[in-house]
Amino acid sequence: xxxxxxxxxxxxxxxxxxxxxxxxxxxxxxxxxxxxxxxxxxxxxxxxxxxxxxxxxxxxxxxxxxxxxxxxxxxxxxxxxxxxxxxxxxxxxxxxxxxxxxxxxxxxxxxxxxxxxxxxxxxxxxxxxxxxxxxxxxxxxxxxxxxxxxxxxxxxxxxxxxxxxxxxxxxxxxxxxxxxxxxxxxxxxxxxxxxxxxxxxxxxxxxxxxxxxxxxxxxxxxxxxxxxxxxxxxxxxxxxxxxxxxxxxxxxxxxx
Length: 256
Description:
By secondary structure, the protein is an alpha+beta fold. The protein has 2 domains: 180 residues, no CATH class; 46 residues. 39% of the residues lie in helices and 13% in strands. It contains 7 helices and 9 strands; from the N terminus they run E-E-H-E-E-E-E-E-H-H-E-E-H-H-H-H. The longest helix has 22 residues.
């Protein structure tokens, strides 16, 4: 399977989607609040089998770094399971609601988040190299991992806007999300573009609140969101993609 986006300077290809194993959510507490908190936490996954994805990138977009090649995301690395959490989206239920489901961790960001999560966990990406039996760990900088994330969303889903928003979101994570095995915060170049966009959005919201009043602004905003969700509900969900015939060994023959 390959992407269908329009940016030919970046191409991604993989043969099948990754097989994920959801991890148990910790809700076994006496306190009702802690049970609620555990149920609302970010869901994590592990890989059932290694996942291979191939990139073709323009080094000019990555400060001269040639990140083209075949990446093998393993089940375990350096004695640890590969933990996946959908690009560490904070408050995923709220982000999913505000973005109409576009930025939910297991939505269109899923495949891109696997590469991104591995890079954030280990600070490297394992590339398959000729002459080596095992993948070779190639160090990758934080802002390059973020750019791979955004470009992969765009290419796999043919959604440039969502890819750009996803890239801006993970760049803002520079402020608090640790990177690499040393769990370093605010490493690499500062995300000035993302910070500028955030400042513009906040400034615009403040101006609108001052002009129309915060209560009216909140009421209109909520009404527009509910209307949009109502329209989406009336349109109905899209038809699911065909997955082929079921070849289960437990099928029974009809008596006739």
